[in-house]
Design a protein that fits this description.
With 191 residues, the chain is of the alpha/beta class. It contains 7 helices and 7 strands. The protein is 45% helix and 15% strand.
């Protein structure tokens, strides 16, 4: 946040269950200030049971975690709107996940960005589902940026993914960080 000047950044994604929604909004605002207004607040319902166990949180069910996310999103937005000082930037909310009945509806209702994963065919289909939710809630689907996380470039087709509606490609990296695939993706984007 402090050592870069142009890069947008944020969590991909923080688990809603790990923090009080108002505290999360305050923390994100602080990072937004440290970065000069370049923070993206990425959030999801949570899925990794091991983390819940290690933190001492109740894992519950996918349904209870999604319900908690649905309850938290308005609280996060309300807190961001009344913080003094407010975030410096727009601080978009990104929701990660691909659930068609709840997650993508929450994206249509609350998010500025959506992050999903899978093949170009899966992303094209999920974008159709998201567009359908946007129509149901009265939202312009073009108001939501679409990103895709790619963990392996083997067989990855950038043109197909862009054709499926992806506007941003996020290259997932594990440890140790090997930037070879990043350079490969950047080269493909240039050609």
């Amino acid at each position: 946040a402090c050592d870069t000047e142009r890069a947008l950044f944020g969590m991909l994604v923080t688990c809603n269950s790990y923090r009080n929604p108002e505290l999360l909004a305050d923390m994100a605002r602080t990072i937004d200030h440290l970065s000069g207004g370049r923070m993206i607040l990425g959030i999801g319902a949570g899925w990794l049971e091991r983390d819940y166990q290690e933190y001492g949180y109740e894992f519950g069910t996918a349904g209870t975690r999604l319900q908690a996310l649905e309850e938290s999103l308005p609280r996060i937005k309300e807190r961001l709107a009344k913080l003094d000082p407010p975030p410096l930037g727009d601080m978009p909310i990104l929701i990660g996940g691909g659930g068609e009945k709840v997650t993508l509806r929450l994206v249509a209702e609350h998010a500025d960005m959506w992050n999903g994963g899978g093949s170009a065919e899966v992303i094209a289909y999920k974008n159709e589902v998201l567009d359908g939710w946007c129509a149901q809630v009265g939202r312009d689907p073009n108001a939501i940026e679409r990103s895709v996380i790619v963990n392996d470039l083997a067989g990855f087709d950038l043109d197909a993914m862009l054709g499926a509606g992806a506007q941003h490609i996020i290259l997932g990296r594990g440890s140790p960080f090997d930037f070879g695939p990043v350079k490969e993706l950047a080269q493909a984007a240039r050609s």
